[in-house]
Amino acid sequence: MKNYSLLVVDDDKNNLMVMIRYLEKHHKPQVNYEFLTAPNGKIAFEIAKKTKPDLILTDWDMPLMNGIEMIRAVRQLPAIKETPIIIVTGINDAAEDLKLALDAGAVDYIQKPVNKIELNARVYSALQLYDAFRTIRLQKTAIEEQKKQELGSKTLQIYEKNQILSTVKSRLENYLLDLKPDDRPAGKAIVKLIEQNMHHDNEWDAFKQQFDKVNPQFFKVLEEKHNDLTISEIKMCAYIYVGLGIKEIADFMHLEYGGARVKKTRIKQKLKLPADLKIDDYIRGL
Question: What CATH code would you report for 2-114?
Answer without folding.
Answer: 3.40.50.2300
